[in-house]
Amino acid sequence: xxxxxxxxxxxxxxxxxxxxxxxxxxxxxxxxxxxxxxxxxxxxxxxxxxxxxxxxxxxxxxxxxxxxxxxxxxxxxxxxxxxxxxxxxxxxxxxxxxxxxxxxxxxxxxxxx
Amino acid sequence: xxxxxxxxxxxxxxxxxxxxxxxxxxxxxxxxxxxxxxxxxxxxxxxxxxxxxxxxxxxxxxxxxxxxxxxxxxxxxxxxxxxxxxxxxxxxxxxxxxxxxxxxxxxxxxxxxxxx
Lengths: 113, 116
What we know:
The complex is a heterodimer of chains A (113) and B (116). Chain A is mainly β and 113 residues long.
C-alpha cells in the first residue's frame, strides 16, 4: 500500500511569509508525528497526534508553529512569519498506534531566503 | 527529559567487516528502541527495533542488543557491503508511569562508510 506522503517536496519562501506543509499518513494509522531535521543533524520532535486525544505539542519551538489533523487523517504543519532558522527538512511519520513502529515520508525541504 | 547519546559519529570499515554503533539513554522507563537508516536525501527507513522485554533481536545481517541495566543498546551489522553506507540513527520512546508516549527521541547519528 501507499506510504506516508508529504507535499510539497521542496518549498522556497521569503523570510516573514507563512508556509503550510501537508502530510498524508498511511491508511489506518492512528498516530501521526512531525519531526524536523536540520542540515547534518538528527531528528527533532515537533508534535504528535494520537486518535482523538489532545496533541502533544511539547516539541514546537515557538508559537509561530502550529499543526492540525483533520478527520483523523491528513495533517498540516503551519509556520507563520518564517525565519531563516526555520530552514530544515520537515518529516512526517505515522504508526498504527502509539508505541508502534513509525514510518516516515520523504519530507519537505524548506528554505527561507 | 529523555536523552539519547550515540557513538561513534563516524565509522569507516572495509567491506566484509562488522560494524557496531552504540547508544545510551537516560530514562530507565524507555521501552522501545528502533534503528533507522537514512541515505543521502532520502527518508529515514526503519531497519530493526527492539522492546524492553527482549535482550537481542536479529534480522539477517543486522542485530540489535539491549542492556536495560546499563541503559544502552547497540546495532550490529555483519558482513558489511558498500550499500550499507548511510547515516544510522538510534531512537527511544519514553514510557513514564506506565503510559507509553509516542514521540521518538533520536541520537545524533552515525555516518557509516563501507569501503569496497
